[in-house]
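Review form for a predicted model. The reviewer records the input and the model, then writes brief findings.
Reviewer: anonymous (R2)
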Amino acid sequence: MFVFFTRICPIVLYDKDDWIYIGQMRIPFPQWNGWNPVKVLPEILMPICGYISAYFIYPIIGNYFFSITITSAIILSIFIVILCLC
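Model under review:
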């Protein structure tokens, strides 16, 4: 799954919403007056991916965009494995 999310179908930030969500942390509860109040998991995972990739992966690799792809692929692969095991 890691190879799929990094090489075959890479996770790349290209939209304005992606860049906003990667830098803006929110509380993990639905926001009733928000734009999309039930979209909790992507808005929690994207800032975590951004922080991990910026502070841990980027200094090793030297490519910020690929570090976001690697971190997102690792986290999504872990969630898919947990889902399959459950």
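Findings: The mean pLDDT is 85.
Further findings: The two ends are 17 Å apart (CA to CA).
Recommendation: see findings above.
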